[in-house]
Structure formats: C-alpha cells, structure tokens
Amino acid sequence: MRWSRYRISWRAIITAVVCLFAFLQGFSTIVGPWAAYFYAPASSDGLNPKLLGMWNEKFQYPEPNGVASFEGTIEYFRNKTYRINGVLKSTVFAPSSSTSETTSYRFDGNGEWQATDDELEIKLLDVQIRVANKSPTNMAVVRGPSPSAEESAIERGLLLAKSQRYDIRSAKKDKVVLETGGLLADSFVIKMNRTKQMYMR
Hints:
By secondary structure, the chain is of the alpha+beta class. It has helices at 2-31, 35-38, 147-160; strands spanning 53-63, 66-76, 81-93, 100-115, 119-136, 163-171, 175-181, 187-194. An eight-stranded antiparallel β-barrel has the order 1-2-3-4-5-6-7-8. The longest helix is centred in the N-terminal third of the chain and has 30 residues, at 2-31. The relative contact order is 0.16.
C-alpha cells in the first residue's frame, strides 16, 4: 500500500517535470528575441547590445556653402550589419546673394557596425540615392548635372568616405545620443529614439 503511494508520487513528479520542461522550452522560444531588450549583457567582441534594434534619427550638419540634414531610421542587427533609410536634404546658399537651393534625396543603404560601451563605428558598404525633390529659389539660374549623374556622384562620394566613428554620449533603453566630427572640423550630435518595431536577424 505504501509502495503504491510512493509509485503514484513519483509518477506525478515525473509528469510535472516533463510539463515544466515543455513550458520552459516554449517560453524561451517566445521570449528569446526580446531578451536583449530587457537583459543586455556587457559589450564584448565589438557588439554593444544596447544599440540592437530599430531607431528613428534626425540630425543636421554644416557643409561648404550650405547645410545637410537627415531624417529616417537605422536598424542595428546582431550579426553586426545595419540598414539605414530615410530622406537626405542638402541646402546650398549662393555666395553672392541670399538665394538657395534645397534638394531632397531618398537614401537607402546598408553596411557593417561594431561598438563598445563608449564608441560606435559604422562602415557603409552599399547605398542607393534617388532625387526626390528640388526647390530652387530661381529656376532660371539652376545649372547642374542630370539627376542620374548627380545621384551616382553622391553614391560614389559616400562609399569613398568609408567608415565613420561616433562617441556614445549616453545609451538608455529607448534613447541614444551620439557625437561625431563633421567635414568642417566641427562636431554634431545625433539623437536616436527606439521604435516599437523589432529586428529579426
């Protein structure tokens, strides 16, 4: 009688363990992709987990005779690749007057990234630029290359720039602040805000 009671207890324990194992296996499958967002391990091997995911970013910086700005999204993947797309605007001021011309480009690129807790480095490997809109002040004085030649020239220039380094000024769960040097021996700040979308790579 006592042995029968023990046998029933062991069966109950084994059944419970099997059910628990199945639950944990399913739980890890569901929660796994989210783990990096809640429990970010320390940076190692050039992978800063605080940067993983998709971010909105908006910034501007001075250029010779003008100013450039970008607004779009950048997505950092765990395999140390990234994708960036958005709208790049370039405003050029005429040196002898107050006229200006603003050109908007659709920007779609991808490349590689690596980061420590203090520094981010990205390398653009492929980019596609398309003229989206031009708004010159005076159409009669507009001169320049055709859109296709202009797009190709910008793409070549961006790829020749190779890598860019950024200082990580702060890295919180939903906001990251970067700072980098510009083309005119200046520096500018990039603020990134996390989106609700998830990466899956």
